[in-house]
TrEMBL record:
Protein name per its UniProtKB record: RQC P-site tRNA stabilizing factor
Species lineage: Bacteria, Bacillati, Bacillota, Bacilli, Lactobacillales
Chain ranges of the RNA-binding S4 domain: 1-64
Top-level division of the source organism's lineage: Bacteria
Gene expressing this chain: rqcP
Any one GO biological process: rescue of stalled ribosome
Length: 90
């Protein structure tokens, strides 16, 4: 399954166009390598997704073509969730 579709179906990112944009900017890694939106995702892959001030590391558990909201969380396991610190001086 394509990376952008996986992120949409699993509801990690709400819109496929946003998932494609983030991936094509080089902000997603699969198993340590920068991935494009068309990169294939497989079970047991580790994804590192860099949002604005948040970095989410997940492991792919399952690939489903369509899901209901309650089933989407079965598709992945969150390994780590980090937030960037605000280093502004006051």
């Amino acid at each position: 399954m394509r990376l952008d579709k996986y992120l949409k179906v699993s509801r990690i990112i709400k819109r496929r166009s946003v998932a494609k944009e983030i991936a094509d900017k080089g902000r997603i890694e699969i198993n340590g390598k920068v991935a494009k939106s068309s990169t294939e995702v497989a079970p047991r892959d580790e994804l590192v997704i860099k949002f604005g001030n948040k970095t989410l590391t997940i492991t792919v558990d399952e690939l489903l073509e369509t899901t209901k909201k309650d089933d989407a969380e079965r598709m992945y396991t969150i390994v780590k969730e980090e937030y960037a610190q605000d280093f502004r001086q006051e």
